Every structure is written in structure tokens, then in C-alpha cells.
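hiii so um. not sure if this is the right channel but i have a protein structure encoded as C-alpha cells and i wanna go backwards to a sequence. like what aa goes where. can anyone help
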């Protein structure tokens, strides 16, 4: 902890003469009464009020000290901290095409995928994890980071309506999604580099084929785990109609061969998830990946820390005033 206004701390030197005055001259300033003989009071026990009388002085002193500290503006110190952790570099490539709104997984495919991915991220606090999303096009939602709070916030904001609103082209560009994730891992120095690719369809968009992206991943030593999400036949899909939603059954068309080939070429694995429980088990299996050392830098932000001292000074002042007008009240 450091002080923004250190010069105010010099005021604490005023406590020294105050203490000296209280010890040496306080009794002379108190009112007295003349008595013919004090023999009857010579061996009388001291009351608890007399014993606690110095408490008022201590409280006044405490108020002064705490006020000075608050005026000096105590602050935390900015600092960079380096530490070595065990982790791997992971890019999550998630399909956000409109078909991910199908409700064969509860509440729907995209929400189930986001929930399980969030649990996976929380369970690996030391990993360098990023997020790429794709439909007919692909872009990076979050670059690789160990700041998982920010990553989870960006994951929570992933929506499928970006394609429905025309912000990106709808469709399923598996090759583009994989290539985007691979581009984020190409300069990684980690021992293990992994892409977890999740989709519910087959490649029908993009300028890069899935197998070309897989070959690039292989050349860079990146393993790809592919997950095909959806039931084996048809799935209920919410179709907007005038005045509400109408559910229609859409066929589930997952290119399992391509996803399996991608995983095989990159020495990864291919998984099928027909419900949320299976999807969660898949992420648990991937969670058993090997780990490698990462150097992580953490930044500590400066903030004002005077509030506790100011609050304590107010409480001590009120307590001293209360004691003065009640227990330690003097007449005259």
C-alpha cells in the first residue's frame, strides 16, 4: 500500500505533544473541590468509571490518526506479477448458424453448447483459451487469453441471430471456422495446441475446404477434436410466423465423415452428441488432455483505499461523543 499525499502523515507528529500534555498537565486542568479531611477516601476503591476515564483520550487520538491516514489517500500499488502455470493452448470453434436454434438439445443447441463450454473453461483456469465462431463466415470472438472472466462474458454474448439479421452470411463454413482457429494457434509455443470444433451441419460455405484447414492444422502440430451436435434423425426447429412461433421438424444433416477425417488427420478424436449429457461427457473426456508450462503475467489495478479508515474515524468520533455525554459526563 502507498499514499498519494504522504505529506499529511507528518501531522501524526502532533500526537506526541498531546500525549505529553495529557500525562503531565491534564490533572492540573481538571476542576477541584476543597475538603477538610480526605482520610475517609484514602483507601476507597477506584470506580470503573475512573479506571476507564483515559478511554476518551484514546478515542480522540484514534480519530485524529485515522483522519490523517484517510487524508493521505492510501492506495494499492500497481504491479505486474509473473507466475508459471500448467496449461495448454485451446481454441474453441463454435457453429452459430441459425440451425443451432434447433431444440433437440435443451433449451436449444447453441445454449447447450455455450453452457457446457463455459463449464469446460471454468474447469481449466490455467489454460490459454480463445473463441472463434462461424456460420457462412468466421471471425474471432475472443483471442486466446487466461482472463477467463472476459472470455466467459464474450461467450455469453454469442448469438445465432447475427446470421439471421444479415450481419454475416448464414450457412456452415467448417473450413473457415477451423482455419480461423488455427491462425490463432500458429504462433503458440505451448507443447499442446488444440482446437475443439463444434458444428451441427455439413460444410456448404467458405473459401477453404475443411480438409485443407485440417492439413494446415496438422503441419502446425495442432490437434483437432470435432463434435457433431444433434439427434440422428430430425429435430424441432422454431420457425417465426405471424403472431408467434411454429415448430417444424428439420432433418439433421451432419457430415460425420468429414468431421471424422479432420480429427483423424490431426490425431484428434471425433464425437457425436445427441443430447446435453453426452456433450458434457465429451468435454470431460477432452479435459484429460496433457498440460504444458505457460508464463502468465497478471496486472494489479490501483484503487483508493481510504474508505475503511474514514469510516473507522467516524465510528470512533461518535463513540467518544456518546461516552462524553453519558458515562463520562462531568458536573460542572
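sure thing!! here u go:
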Amino acid at each position: 500500500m502507498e499514499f498519494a499525499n504522504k505529506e499529511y502523515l507528518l501531522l501524526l507528529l502532533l500526537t506526541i505533544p498531546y500525549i505529553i500534555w495529557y500525562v503531565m498537565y491534564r490533572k492540573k486542568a481538571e476542576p477541584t473541590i476543597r475538603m477538610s479531611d480526605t482520610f475517609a477516601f484514602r483507601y476507597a476503591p477506584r470506580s470503573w468509571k475512573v479506571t476507564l476515564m483515559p478511554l476518551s483520550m484514546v478515542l480522540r487520538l484514534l480519530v485524529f490518526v485515522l483522519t490523517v491516514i484517510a487524508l493521505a489517500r492510501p492506495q494499492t500499488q500497481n504491479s505486474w506479477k509473473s507466475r508459471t502455470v500448467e496449461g495448454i493452448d485451446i481454441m474453441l470453434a463454435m457453429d452459430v448458424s441459425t440451425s443451432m436454434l434447433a431444440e433437440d438439445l435443451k433449451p436449444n443447441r447453441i445454449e447447450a453448447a455455450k453452457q457446457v463450454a463455459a463449464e469446460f473453461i471454468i474447469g481449466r483456469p490455467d489454460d490459454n483459451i480463445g473463441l472463434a465462431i462461424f456460420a457462412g463466415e468466421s471471425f474471432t470472438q475472443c483471442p486466446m487469453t487466461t482472463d477467463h472472466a472476459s472470455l466467459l462474458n464474450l461467450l455469453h454474448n454469442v448469438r445465432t441471430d447475427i446470421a439471421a439479421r444479415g450481419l454475416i452470411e448464414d450457412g456452415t463454413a467448417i473450413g473457415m471456422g477451423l482455419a480461423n482457429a488455427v491462425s490463432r494457434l500458429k504462433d503458440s509455443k505451448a507443447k499442446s495446441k488444440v482446437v475443439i470444433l463444434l458444428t451441427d451441419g455439413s460444410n456448404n460455405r467458405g473459401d477453404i475446404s475443411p480438409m485443407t484447414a485440417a492439413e494446415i492444422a496438422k503441419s502446425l502440430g495442432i490437434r483437432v477434436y470435432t463434435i457433431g451436435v444433434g439427434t440422428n434423425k430430425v429435430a424441432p426447429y422454431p420457425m417465426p410466423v405471424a403472431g408467434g412461433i411454429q415448430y417444424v421438424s428439420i432433418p439433421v444433416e451432419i457430415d460425420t465423415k468429414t468431421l471424422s477425417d479432420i480429427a483423424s488427420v490431426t490425431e484428434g478424436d471425433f464425437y457425436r452428441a445427441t443430447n446435453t449429457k453426452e456433450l458434457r461427457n465429451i468435454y470431460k473426456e477432452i479435459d484429460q488432455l496433457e498440460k504444458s508450462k505457460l508464463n502468465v503475467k497478471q496486472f494489479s489495478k490501483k484503487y483508493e483505499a481510504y474508505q475503511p479508515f474514514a469510516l473507522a474515524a467516524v465510528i470512533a468520533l461518535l463513540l467518544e461523543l456518546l461516552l462524553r455525554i453519558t458515562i463520562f459526563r462531568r458536573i460542572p
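oh and DSSP finds eleven helices and twelve strands in the chain.
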